[in-house]
Design brief:
alpha/beta, 8-stranded parallel beta barrel, 7-stranded antiparallel beta sheet, 8 helices
């Protein structure tokens, strides 16, 4: 961005109501690089210091740094703290500013290392459990996808399914390759055509119980598969379809028979269309067999304030007591696979075990209500927006990072918050109100520690032209008005490339200064040109950040030259 367009620059501070403002005393516009690093690995830190030197030479003056371990800085090996110190010292020698990313609200696995029960929860209401041999598990064992063995077919679809793309051409039953039984469903990917659009999916409408936990399992074998997506997607029926699952199956382009599993919550829905297969396929083959959809109870069970457990008898007249009638119930695998902070849903439901003198007897049916969390895409789990312990952990994080870096700015990581607003601490408030209060509390925590520090945040969850709207993933209620929690002193790191002009002007009109998070592993020339055009005439759009999620710094120098091209 041309410095002549920038009227408010980036290092002199003046206090104003609610926080800090920047003066026009700074001669440099912000040009930053985003860097993810593991400070526990010495070679990773060596690479970061080399990147800082390279960035400084190319004209960068700041680096936004993040580490999964920032969410739990206590009890790390000594080399971790040495690496924090040597990175700060290297940055000081180079004259490049370090801006730590903190408060991982959205991609919260970092925080959840401390206590996985602080994840955002979805409610299960009155799930029927059956007691056998002193253990209670979900009573139903029904497979809701009858025909999931793909043994026979009618004229237009496999038996038990309602509909399939291109049956007899792209999709067939294969008796030569199968996991079990007589045959499997073979999907042969193809380039887009008028007939299929490249899609290759099998579909069935099922009836679910509202607010229940379900698991989908299948076996798949692939050969040179290339498609935009291979997905299991339960969509609520009706005029506005709601996707109930956003976790990826993890099917590889070429693999032998492998079991895949997804856990989801039906929320308020009963009639659901289950889609399974390929979207925008190009080439390759996939065989699917032994598909099941069934009720479960307690996988990734949450136990904390706001996520109560209730166990009652079949007619609801007796409420049983934990410790008296049944042993403390928890999921020992919660947030521990493959290591602390990472979640897995491919494990068994934990049984609810009776105590010796329980009032519950074998053969009894129970009504069990609880909360569980879910995985988004490839492992993302969101933290609660409202649990007090979350804020205690965030306070500890900024205290630790301030000790090692003493940064001028803290960069809040509120980003793509995809599960929110369901637990009882939310008290029925729309998610937008909850998020506004959350970010307000987070900013307050930073300024209580460092009144002189600038606070920044990603744009998307506060942008009505991006993610701050209704029907966002598994968020309860609308995210509108989330932006009211942002004091004008909070700087916005804007990455809404799809609606760049509208987004930049929205935040400018609310008095925020903005940094443009450009590149995003895209065509560097087109990306910078697009953002520069959108920022023309926008007040307080001050600089750029080279943002890569794949650690691809090949275009680092080219990005800087393009940013400064018309100065």
């Amino acid at each position: 961005m041309c410095s002549r367009l920038i009227t408010i620059l980036f290092s002199g501070f003046i206090l104003f109501a609610g926080g800090l403002r920047l003066t026009e005393a700074d001669a440099e516009d912000p040009l930053w690089v985003y860097a993810s690093v593991n400070f526990q690995v010495d070679k990773d830190v060596d690479g970061l210091i080399q990147l800082l030197a390279r960035a400084k030479k190319a004209g960068y003056n700041g680096a936004a740094i993040t580490d999964y371990k920032f969410g739990k800085l206590d009890d790390r090996p000594d080399n971790y703290y040495r690496n924090l110190t040597r990175t700060r010292e290297a940055a000081e020698r180079l004259g490049i500013e370090l801006i730590p990313l903190v408060m991982q609200i959205g991609y919260s696995n970092s925080i959840l290392q401390n206590n996985p029960n602080l994840a955002a929860g979805l409610p299960v209401k009155d799930c029927e459990f059956l007691v056998r041999d002193g253990n209670a598990l979900v009573a139903s064992t029904q497979n809701l996808l009858d025909g999931g063995e793909f043994e026979t077919a009618a004229r237009k679809a496999p038996t038990g399914w309602d509909w399939i793309d291109s049956f007899g051409t792209m999709t067939t039953l294969d008796a030569t390759v199968k996991h079990a039984g007589q045959s499997a469903l073979l999907m042969q990917a193809a380039q887009k055509s008028e007939e299929s659009g490249g899609n290759c999916r099998v579909v069935k409408r099922v009836t679910l119980k509202p607010f229940h936990e379900y698991q989908f399992t299948m076996w798949a074998k692939t050969e040179d598969l290339k498609a935009d997506e291979f997905r299991f997607m339960p969509l609520s029926a009706g005029q506005t379809a709601t996707a109930l699952n956003h976790a990826n199956l993890g099917v590889k382009p070429t693999q032998d028979w492998t079991r895949h599993r997804i856990v989801f919550n039906s929320l308020q829905h009963t009639d659901v269309n289950v889609y399974l297969g390929l979207w925008s396929s190009q080439y390759g083959r996939v065989w699917i067999d032994d598909v099941r959809l069934e009720e479960i109870g307690g996988v990734n069970l949450l136990r904390r304030d706001g996520c109560p457990l209730t166990v009652r008898n079949s007619d609801g007249s007796i409420t049983y007591e934990e410790g008296r009638d049944f042993q403390p119930w928890h999921d020992p695998s919660l947030g521990q696979i493959p290591y602390a902070g990472e979640f897995d849903d491919d494990h068994d439901s934990p049984p609810l075990r009776l105590t010796k003198n329980s009032r519950i007897a074998d053969g009894d049916r129970l009504r069990v209500s609880f909360f569980h969390t879910v995985i988004i895409h490839d492992g993302q789990v969101c933290a609660s927006l409202v649990a007090d312990e979350v804020f205690n952990l965030l306070r500890r994080e900024i205290e630790q990072l301030d000790k090692f870096f003493r940064p001028k700015r803290f960069f809040m990581s509120h980003d793509e918050i995809r599960v929110a607003g369901w637990d009882e601490l939310a008290q029925g408030e729309p998610a937008g109100n909850l998020l506004a209060d959350n970010v307000r509390r987070c900013e307050r925590l930073i300024h209580q520690l460092r009144p002189d520090a600038e606070v920044m945040v990603w744009s998307d969850m506060f942008d009505p032209h991006h993610n701050a709207h209704d029907n966002y993933y598994l968020v309860r209620g609308s995210l509108e008005e989330s932006w009211t929690g942002l004091d004008p002193s909070v700087a916005i790191v804007n990455w809404n490339g799809g609606q760049a002009s509208r987004s930049l002007r929205f935040f400018a009109d609310r008095g925020h200064q903005q940094i443009i998070a450009g590149y995003y592993d895209a065509d560097v020339n087109q990306n910078v040109a697009q953002w520069k055009k959108a920022a023309t005439g926008v007040k307080n759009a001050r600089g750029f950040m080279y943002t890569t999620w794949t650690r691809n710094y090949d275009s680092l120098e080219a990005f800087a030259k393009l940013v400064h091209a018309d100065e």
